[in-house]
């Protein structure tokens, strides 16, 4: 109940703050108080339930009995004591119930006041809406009047400015269409000159870059060709070394196959000593004392050398072509990457040119510049001739001024003059 009363007091304060017009923008409706009404009804229901439980179903139900015996004095005395005890216990509860009923009545009065205030607020809101609509209609009418005034002022100002321009006799515009044509042609010729200069610069840059790319391509191809030549020479030297080694192995194999001796090597046989020395040098044995081996051991060593020879031949026939192809592919990829790197336009470095191609390019640029100079001279001469022809005094300057002024200020008069001239031309016999 206290919480409900606190919320009602807060709502009343908000309404008083709103009616004081301190801050316009807070709008309340009857639905805002629905929660307070529901909580109030729930509180009243709980109080009624509690008192019903205590007074109708508790110890006080003995008071309502009518079938008590009248002559028994012990029971009434017991009932009196019980009633006194109950009254002493529930006196405070009765007082709280009465206070709660009074608070409920106050709340009902407050709610009725709030409903009345809300009804008055709705009427105020409707009045404000009608006043705003009236103000909006008034402002739209004022805007229409202002737009009409602005259009009238603009028409009058434009007409006055055109008449002032017509009265300016010293202006270049009012001296006829010839001066206008001259100015227009000068502007057009200046634009043509700028465009021609731009084209010349673009053409020179294009030729310059084309020559640079061609020279770079030639140097790149020559460097790649020299690199391939060096690679081919290295491969040829490698093949020659392998072939020489194979020849040595064949000679050793033939020498070993021609040997028929068995047993230990004779000291007087210089050939076997040489074969033994070759085999020991191949095996990498570095001994200070000479080692004597038999012919069978020499044959075994020679057979091992033959096996190694077969392995080397197999590598020469199968492995080396693959390695050569892989090496050539790598060289081609390197050349392609170099081509891609060199094909990128360089902005901060200029290529090195040989004198002869550069001289040819400069000759072509000189020929192009001579042609451009001749075309510019022709355009300049034509402009001077037209300027001399148009600088002659106009015979109909006054009429041109009048036509110019009528075009801006009195277009109807100009239309009438055009109609008259058209009728005269049509009336002339062919």
TrEMBL record:
The residues forming a coiled coil are 97-156
Q: What is this protein called?
A: HAUS augmin-like complex subunit 3 N-terminal domain-containing protein
- For this protein, the parts annotated as crossing the membrane are none
Similarity section: Belongs to the HAUS3 family.
Answer whether the UniProt record assigns the keyword Cytoplasm to this protein. Answer: yes
Concerning PANTHER family, the annotation shows:
GOLGIN- RELATED, OS07G0185700 PROTEIN
Location of the protein in the cell: Cytoplasm, Cytoskeleton, Spindle
Q: Where would I find the HAUS augmin-like complex subunit 3 N-terminal domain in this sequence?
A: 1-103
Q: Which InterPro entries match?
A: HAUS3 (IPR026206), HAUS3_N (IPR032733)
Q: Which GO terms describe its biological process?
A: cell division; microtubule organizing center organization; spindle assembly
What superkingdom does the record give?
Eukaryota
Q: Which UniProt keywords apply?
A: Cell cycle, Cell division, Coiled coil, Cytoplasm, Cytoskeleton, Microtubule, Mitosis
A single GO cellular-component term from the record reads: microtubule organizing center
């Amino acid at each position: 109940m206290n919480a409900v009363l606190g919320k009602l007091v807060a709502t009343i304060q908000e309404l008083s703050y709103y009616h004081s017009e301190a801050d316009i923008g807070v709008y309340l409706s009857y639905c805002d108080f629905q929660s307070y009404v529901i909580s109030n009804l729930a509180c009243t229901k709980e109080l009624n339930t509690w008192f019903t439980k205590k007074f109708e179903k508790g110890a006080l139900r003995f008071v309502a009995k009518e079938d008590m015996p009248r002559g028994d004095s012990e029971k009434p005395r017991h009932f009196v004591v019980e009633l006194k005890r109950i009254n002493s216990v529930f006196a405070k509860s009765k007082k709280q119930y009465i206070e709660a009923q009074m608070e409920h009545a106050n709340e009902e009065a407050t709610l009725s006041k709030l409903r009345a205030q809300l009804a008055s607020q709705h009427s105020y809101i409707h009045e404000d809406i009608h006043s705003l609509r009236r103000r909006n209609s008034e402002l739209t009418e004022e805007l229409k009047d202002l737009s009409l005034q602005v259009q009238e002022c603009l028409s009058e100002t434009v007409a006055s400015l055109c008449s002032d321009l017509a009265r300016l006799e010293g202006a270049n515009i009012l001296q006829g269409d010839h001066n206008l044509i001259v100015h227009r042609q000068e502007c057009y010729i200046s634009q043509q000159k700028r465009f021609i200069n731009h084209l010349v610069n673009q053409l020179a840059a294009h030729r310059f870059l084309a020559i640079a790319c061609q020279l770079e391509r030639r140097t790149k191809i020559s460097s790649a060709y020299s690199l391939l030549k060096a690679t081919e020479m290295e491969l040829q030297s490698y093949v020659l070394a392998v072939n020489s080694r194979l020849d040595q192995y064949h000679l050793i194999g033939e020498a070993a196959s021609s040997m028929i001796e068995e047993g230990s090597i004779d000291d007087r046989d210089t050939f076997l000593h040489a074969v033994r020395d070759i085999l020991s040098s191949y095996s990498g044995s570095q001994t200070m004392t000479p080692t004597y081996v038999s012919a069978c051991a020499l044959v075994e060593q020679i057979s091992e050398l033959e096996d190694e020879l077969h392995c080397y031949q197999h590598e020469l026939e199968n492995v080396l072509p693959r390695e050569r192809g892989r090496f050539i592919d790598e060289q081609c990829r390197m050349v392609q990457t170099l081509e891609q790197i060199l094909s990128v336009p360089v902005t901060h470095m200029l290529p090195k040119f040989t004198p002869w191609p550069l001289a040819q390019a400069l000759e072509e640029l000189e020929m192009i510049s001579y042609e451009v100079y001749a075309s510019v001279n022709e355009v300049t001469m034509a402009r001077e001739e037209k300027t001399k022809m148009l600088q002659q005094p106009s015979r109909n300057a006054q009429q041109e001024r009048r036509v110019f002024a009528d075009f801006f200020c009195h277009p109807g008069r100009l239309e009438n003059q055009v109609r008259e001239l058209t009728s005269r031309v049509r009336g002339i016999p062919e």
